[in-house]
Amino acid sequence: MIDDPVLVNDWHPVAGVDQLARGGPLGARLLGEDIVLWRSGDDHFAWRDLCVHRGTRLSLGKVVAGGALECPYHGWTYGTDGRCVLMPAHPEQTPPAKACVQVYRTAVAHGLIWVSLGSPAGGVPSFEMLEDPAYQVLRAGPYRVKASGPRIVENFLDVGHFPFVHEGILGDRARPEIADYETSTDSNGVLATGVKVFQPDPYATGHGSVVTYTYRVHRPLSASFIKHGEHSFGMLLSVTPHDAVDSTAWMWMAMNYEPESPMVEFQDRIFAQDRPILESQRPELLPLDLQAELHLRSDRTAIAYRRWLREIGVRTGTA
Ligand code: FES
Ligand SMILES: [Fe+2]
Q1: What is the pLDDT of residues 196-209, one digit of tens each?
Q2: Which of 98, 112, 218, 268 is the most exposed place for a label (fewest CB within 10 A)?
Q3: Tens digit of pLDDT for each residue in 60-94?
Q4: Is the Cβ–Cβ distance between 93 and 84 less than 8 Å?
């Protein structure tokens, strides 16, 4: 496991609830740790993906009798609390107390299974537009990216790249200027308000307009924006840090209007434009020393984000 108390004690999305529809098991990787996910009824489990007998991956095993996980190698069977309940070679023998896998906390929210490898102080990131019945909510991704989680979040917060990376959709190279806006930071994260940009097609409806964004960083690897204008459109991003520079981005979109093109495909196109940029950035780890890269006034959200990560001591994907 990566030595990063802040992220170890945070919640991270690891799989869609639908991926465990048949019970699992399913392997996942979080913060350098291999985990096995499985389900029994309405309960979801996340354990270290390692049988204590001979170190085999439990994610290669199977869910048996609806409520236990069987190792693929010698069939040791673990109950929902992670204790071994059966060693088939010696069915009469009570498994020793040490025959117990490492169990982690799980939560279900926004259609995903979330895991914490530690003791989270708060809950899964929430975003009010996802709870508001006035909005249609769609999920895009997951997008696996060979990049650091903080680099992905910073890209999400960055409007200066729109005219170049998303030319003709989210920006216009003839109108690349970014007016000044405000940011503030507190213990809950970063807030940027009044971020204005001209967009040729901000809502996938085929019409251009100036839109104003409110950006929020909720957790080190979760951020949202709300686009205010002719319509309201919001997005929540949560990034799974598999390893320092191997991540998965999950996105939820909320809108109070009927888009003219399918929004998930629209987001797939946008993300396909960001991906090569993200995978090309060097150093791969986001530098938290503000002297390490150059910053403009329009980068103030990124500056605030880097400062905050440094302040709270996030280590994964940062330098
Ligand atoms: S390694 Fe799992 S039962 Fe032997
Ligand atoms: Fe982008």
Answers
A1: 999 998 887 888 88
A2: 98
A3: 999 998 799 999 999 999 999 999 999 999 999 99
A4: no
CA of 28 to the centre of ligand 1 (A): 19
Angle of the 300-312 helix axis to the 149-157 helix axis, nearest 10:
150
Parts of the chain belonging to CATH 2.102.10.10: 5-116
What CATH homologous superfamily does 128-312 map to? Naphthalene 1,2-dioxygenase Alpha Subunit; Chain A, domain 1 (3.90.380.10)
220 class by beta-carbon count within 10 Å (0-12 exposed, 13-18 middle, 19+ buried): buried
Q: For ligand 1, atom 4, which residue shows the shortest CA distance?
A: 74
Count of other CB atoms within 10 angstroms of residue 161: 16
CA of 58 to the centre of ligand 1 (A): 9
- Ligand 1: residue of 36, 50, 56, 58 to mutate (most ligand atoms within 8 A of CB) is 56
Is domain 5-116 in CATH 2.102.10.10, yes or no?
yes
- Residue spans in the chain of domains classed CATH 3.90.380.10: 128-312
* Crossing angle of the two packed helices 149-157 and 263-280, in degrees rounded to 10: 120
C-beta of residue 25 within 8 angstroms of C-beta of residue 69: yes
